[in-house]
């Protein structure tokens, strides 16, 4: 029996589960075969100092921890989560059947497939290039992945410790955290609540949530997310032209996070950095099926690395990213890719539009409710996030207060950087009923 | 319409696809809004020098490239692949239905789930701990992933540039390549065909394919794969005790790749490093559903990081790996995890045994055929790889010769390191019929 029965386990009785204090010598080798163990044993391996720079844990598990702690203490209370941007609508039929077909074919001789190309199936790369980008990108420039968060980490692995990064402030925590992990930064500065060595580009109401690039120093890499998580701000065409021009002038690389692109409603708001002339020479675009097809758990995304993007020595960035994808990754799940193909059919695209409409109605409701209650509110028109101002207040305090008084989970803006303090992010991905109920509770609390 | 129709694409007509030579100034800002572009434009970002150290591409895409080139030139020839270790049997019913159910439930309100815990669903972590490890590991020590290759890269990201690594020679190329990418090494040494800064532990017939640890210098990390890819060697209990003892003596961390554990047939060959006393303090174990459930495309694996494993400063390695998994990863696909749960049911484990039996019969056939033909042959008894000796010959030459004369794709041992030269790896994952046909062709060529 290669693997054990349930109950006795794969390894039978042999696995040592507790540290045992025992030792004996193996006379043949004069080596302690069972070394004396003690509870304080440490290896001689030095911890990667970059990890000691990190502050606490990643943001969303911390939110979950506080939420779960509250639930434990208040088991009778009915929690509504407008916190993590997690989709809640079931996957619509056409897309779901693509996933299901992807699973069932693996049970057949004709349909079974093992390893796929790490960069994604040719069919899916083709379809992304044609159905998303109108053939204005080549399939070879498209790298299918298990999602944008993982791609950011892989891009950072590719850039390495020697590059400098700029992020929006506030921003999705992964850009900063992976920068720290890669050794691109110095220590966390308690005074500024920022990492020395990262350039933070403040985005707030005073600058229309677009950075003051004329007063921003050069960095190698610029992480830019639009429509923005967490502020909901959607950069206009001329703002993105300014960004591309800034990158060109400085010889920088923009990592453009377009994960919320399909939520754009306003005209003159591009859905891709590649709509901007010159972007091919300066930008990488990350995108994901998570937020618009409900694939947050399914895991499917992609990166576009244009052929024209080169390092200072002339090497194509695409070549090194290809090396990362083939060496550090083994492809997105074939089942997820089957779902991706269904997403990009006409029926799939229609289904996606239905999902997005639903969430944007939630966003509109949250937005108008908070505006009615007298708050300054941003976002929610081109993104599924509503960014509510609580001037002068600690956002973690407001988070706790809202949780305790209305049992609604939100995200404190400070979790996205000091520029987020004084704001609360509300996510539109909950059910319509939950959003309506949350708004009722807000009206009671603030009305 | 949020996303475009098929044909006009998501971005309509706006994406700029070709580098256009044009420029104009934006008088308002005195900045070139559409910069002059030229085909030679380079950013000012310095390429990560670690990538320039890498030699050629990752091994398996290179094999695929040569195979495809051969097919193009010889379209009438019937290629058999005993190359990449890719599973070919369809996924059996119980496991397949677990995958299918995981997909279909996403289409229902009750069954839909979005983001899962990055470390894996509690149910799957529990089941791995109990059904694979007989509860001798805790669920919190189990991290579910999208596979061992990705986990090695994440472990390397965690270790960072400041650690030294040892690998077996020959070995799975990912350990070396990720070591180079992380900056743990110096340059490739043309004379030795190895990277200066990595310790290579020769494994060959003269030492029974187990390293001479007494003459191995200390490194922080020791990558050890058993049963071994590519040699098929399966370390005995006393050999693994020696390895654990060596690690303890040196304060090193073993990264133990157990991806082929279920192929073990011999008694006194452990299936997990955690069977060895003392291992909890010195070892991390990687494993994968790829090779035994046919999940090479589905993507599911796990890592065990014992609580007792600590860096020199006392920090738990598990804490930093948890940080990597939550920050650089977003969980294995929920559909794949559903399949994993089915794998670990009694019916699933039985199905896995059936798959492994099938492949091991192939291995036995390949082994006995090559032995009959007069070759010294290793492996194939506890692993799905057969390691055939061609003393004094360049393995890339033998690879080409076998491909041209028998149309069978193998892997040249040198692809796994200089210690692999003079050997050819044959993988047992092809169909029974293909293996039989390949053996017929070998008999014709060498008989």
Structure description:
Chains A, B: It comes from Rhodosorus marinus. Chains A, B: This is Aminotransferase class I/classII large domain-containing protein. Chains A, B: GO terms for molecular function: pyridoxal phosphate binding; transaminase activity. Chains A, B: Belongs to the class-I pyridoxal-phosphate-dependent aminotransferase family. LL-diaminopimelate aminotransferase subfamily. Chains A, B: InterPro entries: Aminotransferase_I/II_large (IPR004839), DapL/ALD1 (IPR019942), PyrdxlP-dep_Trfase (IPR015424), PyrdxlP-dep_Trfase_major (IPR015421), PyrdxlP-dep_Trfase_small (IPR015422). Two copies of one chain form a homodimer. Chain A is an alpha/beta fold and 447 residues long. Chain A folds into three domains: 1-45, no CATH class; 57-90 and 348-446, Aspartate Aminotransferase, domain 1 (Alpha-Beta Complex), CATH 3.90.1150; 93-346, Aspartate Aminotransferase, domain 2. Chain A is 35% helix and 14% strand. Chain A has 13 helices and 17 strands. Chain A has a seven-stranded mixed beta sheet, sandwiched between helices. In chain A, strands 13-14-17-16 form a four-stranded antiparallel beta sheet. Chain A has a two-stranded antiparallel sheet with strand order 1-2. In chain A, helix 3 runs antiparallel to helix 10, helix 5 (148-159) runs parallel beside helix 6 (173-181) and helix 5 crosses helix 9. The longest helix of chain A has 27 residues, at 346-372. Chain A starts with 23 loop residues before the first strand and ends with a helix. Mean pLDDT of chain A is 91; it is low at 1-13 and 18-37. The interface between A and B is large, with 168 and 169 residues.
